[in-house]
Fold:
Amino acid sequence: MQDVLFYIFAALTLVCGFLVVANPFSRNPVTSAMFLVLTILSMAGLFVLLGAFFLAAVQVLVYAGAVIVLFLFVIMLLDLQVEERQRYRLRNLLWGGAASLALLAALLEAVRGRLTLPAETGPPVEGDPGALGEALFTAHLLPFEVMSILLLVAMIGVILLSRKEAGR
Structure:
């Protein structure tokens, strides 16, 4: 049963994550934010299956409870109806693609040159937040930093989507 639940939660995570970015149902950003909530909840289900109950709780409380509420507040506070009708400009797509390629190149260089795992010191105690913090900031520092950069990019995206263009 655990294998079946893993595949269900993994499929939900991938499908909902795809629908956050490329939503064929609606161009409304609130719909994408709701799919992001579903992605976070299905990832919390994966954490529960792995026995990481603390991570699952933090995932739901911090991300679904605080970050998504902040995104929804900003999206609903600002009137994005004018921005919804605006077409994507080729220049913006080229700059976004160039920035994505630069980020990917920096990430590959960091992984190739600096990724070394420390030796195991002993089995961690199950549910110990100290062991979790030590693992996050030693063995899993690169993925942790990538997630922080992704959150920063998401916040910059919200700011850019919410600004009004002068002259329109």
